[in-house]
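Thread title: Can someone regenerate the structure for this chain?

I was given the following input by a collaborator and told the matching structure tokens would be attached. They weren't. Posting the sequence so someone can regenerate them.
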Amino acid sequence: MSETTSQNENTTDAPAQTESFFKPEISFDEFAKVDLRVAVITEAELHPNADRLLKLQLDDGSGTPRQICAGIKGHYEPDALVGKRIIIVANLAPRKIRGEESRGMLLAASDAPKDGSGGDRSVVLLTPMSDEIPAGSIAT
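Best answer:
Regenerated them for you:
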């Protein structure tokens, strides 16, 4: 690749991106505060009060079950998620989402913005490449 050619120009299936697509730069010290961990989905079900959410029970290696709500309904069937390893933000402050507590956030990639302006949207969970890594492992 030449110095004047960007990666996006060489990739035909990359989403169209503009400068506003990227979030503001943060310092390494700010990023270091984020606790990324491996978790195993032990249960998955439809959120009782939301159209786009699944309610997931996780083993995060702490010995205490963790629940998160994730906007992945329509991209994944609940039963297909059980037993899968994912990466979560473990130290995100808990919050109520449509009446259910969510204690963290899973990491996923998407090829279009959430607002629907990019047409059909694919969502892919970020997962470890090995099933050998135990729940609670630090993602670095």
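The helical segments are 7-10, 28-32, 78-81.
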